[in-house]
Specification:
The protein has 5 helices and 3 strands, in the order ββαααααβ. By secondary structure, the chain is of the alpha+beta class. The protein has a domain at 3-16 and 39-90. A 3-stranded antiparallel β-sheet has the order 2-1-3. The protein starts with a strand and ends in a 10-residue tail after the last strand.
Length: 100
């Protein structure tokens, strides 16, 4: 499994599921805004329904990687997180958690 695809406002965003592909800035932002360590964040992402905060962080990274720079708090205020969770697809579209 190498990718996670999310839909935000009907638009697909794909993020590499490999934790080695995240930058220090991205992981520092996750820790700063969620209070989770990288390991905690990864574990929570493995359970699609387990943490809306973890999925909010991944969606925020996906938007920023797509060139849509939005402040965390503005993004969090507007995100329809349950719709996001329902849209998650791993790799080939099969609902499996990323490994690693």
């Amino acid at each position: 499994m190498d990718k996670v695809t999310l839909r935000l406002d009907g638009k697909p965003y794909t993020v590499e599921a490999d934790p080695h592909q995240f930058t220090a800035a991205e992981l520092n932002a996750v820790e700063r805004h969620t209070g989770m360590t990288v390991r905690e964040w990864r574990d929570k992402l493995m359970d699609r329904g387990g943490s809306t905060l973890a999925w909010t962080a991944l969606a925020w990274i996906a938007k920023r990687r797509a060139g849509e720079y939005v402040k965390w708090h503005d993004f969090e205020d507007d995100l329809k997180v349950l719709e996001l969770l329902e849209s998650v697809e791993f790799g080939s579209g099969e609902p499996e958690p990323p490994t690693g």
